[in-house]
Amino acid sequence: MLQLPPDFTVIGDKNRPYRDQSGVNAPRDFDEYRTTTLRHPKQPLTLLPQRLTEITGPVLGEGRVTAADADLTLAHGGEAQGQRIIVHGRVLDSDGRAVPNTLIEVWQANAGGRYRHAGDTWPAPLDPHFDGVGRVLTDATGNYRFTTIKPGAYPWGNHTNAWRPAHIHFSLFGQAFTQRLVTQMYFPDDPMFFQDPIFNSVPKEARGRMVSAFDYEATQDNWALGFRFDIVLRGRNATPFEGDDHDD
Amino acid sequence: MTDFAPRYPVTPGIDFTKVPFGQTPSQTVGPYLHIGLPWPDGPDVVPTGTEGSIDITVTVYDGHRTPIADAMIETWQADAAGRFDHPDDPRGRAEPTPARFRGFGRAVADSTGTSTVRTVKPGPLSAEDGSIEAPHIDVGIFARGMLERLVTRIYFPDETERNFSDPVLSGMDPRQREKLIAKATPTGYHLDVVVQDSDPNGDETPFFDL
Questions:
Q1: Listing from the earlier edge strand, what are the strands of the sheet with B54-61?
Q2: Mean per-residue pLDDT for B16-34?
Q3: What's the ipTM?
């Protein structure tokens, strides 16, 4: 647990460590996702009590995002092809508090399931007006919103007839090194969930937290469908970090 | 491609509003992180030309000692004075040393699995009971096949005394400790990160559970 020198003043619940994520994340060696095989540690992790380096983190955003970055459908002088969607939601910590002014980065395939990436060999056409990358900051109450195209599913080489469900990659910083999160947003009722080891690597109870909700209220007449996706980062420990608590 | 198809139970109508509130799980960055994550100035923790700047290079190897060419690293560190320009630094906010120091670096690997950030050496940090944390950089490692980032730390070879009494390093056995201490290079420091070794006394880098 974090302990600070006596001359440090602790105000409110600042400087408490951030709660762990056990039971939320996938095991690092999920056999059915083949690439994990050589890319997971075999030795136990070393417990690192959270110190100053871990409870602080990059505060980014100002100057790194323009309003245009929140609309992925207009690129290189034209409109992207596919189903236009509005994705919005809130970023919270697991204590339910809003995470304001934090940078969200997203990247995704186009409507045909093709990424604008040299390594993507799926022969769906590239869309000259879709780059598949966006950035947005949460506002003072943790809300964010961007406009994009619903990504297509695409095949990959994990196993026979393997397809990734449609998804958008999300990257968030929160306010501490410990809160950093990279995840994927899925769409409700995707028919490909049953065979995707990346989605299903996550414990069953937590999988639904990666699936957005269709949001008719956010849908815009004659223009775009709406989806809501709230993202929850680690919260602070509820127990005091010093005093009567055990220190392991 | 392997000749099997996993099959998992499906929960119809699943979405986040129908499951208990809780943290969003981590997922892999996948093979195409280069679309969304790199920034032109990502590797520049300090601006080009900053006096005293050093290159930190990190090479990431998989369980077969093959360099992971699709890896990305992120670094987070105190400034040269051992401060964080962050509201949760209990000593209060401070102007960064040197000026325009960002604390954060992000770099993608080249074909040799090596990522490079340009920074300055961090200062030591106050820790509990009046002890001092040796200068260090937190490193997050992301790649296809990693469902969650791996976290390790870089320490410096020219800090023998501080490393010896550092509260994190001093709690590790000497063989593990060694693996977190970078090697000096002509322009800075280098660390090899070995993601996997089934031998407990083998080459696997110590990774941290935060």
A1: B114-119, B54-61, B188-194, B183-185
A2: 96
A3: 0.96
